[in-house]
């Protein structure tokens, strides 16, 4: 599978708790932090849930 880079570009302050947990599950804890993941359906679903807080590169 291909890998994707996910970068947190907006703050998690005032976000619902489930979105904060999704960011934690992706490994994003700070602003401008970048993590790499395999492009699996589970990861892509998590990215879709917080797409307004992150940017994605292939």
List keywords for this structure.
alpha+beta; three-stranded antiparallel β-sheet; 26% strand; Ribosomal Protein L30, Chain: A; 58 residues
How would you describe what is shown here?
By secondary structure, the chain is α+β, with helices and mostly antiparallel strands. The chain has a single domain, classed as Ribosomal protein L30/L7 (Ribosomal Protein L30, Chain: A), CATH 3.30.1390. The chain has two helices and three strands, in the order βαβαβ. Strands 2-1-3 form a three-stranded antiparallel sheet, with no helix packed on it. Helix 1 crosses helix 2. The longest helix has 10 residues, at 17-26.
* SSE topology string: EHEHE
What is the rounded Rg? Answer: 10 Å
The CATH superfamily bears the name Ribosomal protein L30/L7
Can you identify the CATH class?
A: Alpha Beta
Low-confidence stretches: none
* Mean pLDDT over the full residue set: 97
What is the terminal-to-terminal distance? 11 Å
Largest sheet composition: 3 strands, antiparallel
Count of alpha and pi helical runs: 2
- Shape designation: globular
By CATH, the architecture is named 2-Layer Sandwich
CATH fold-level assignment: Ribosomal Protein L30, Chain: A
- Indicate how many domains the architecture comprises: 1
Strand order of the largest sheet: 2-1-3
Overall structural class, as computed from helix and strand content, comes to: alpha+beta
Beta content comes to 25-35%
* Helix fraction by DSSP (H/I, runs of at least 4): 25-40%
Number of separate strands: 3
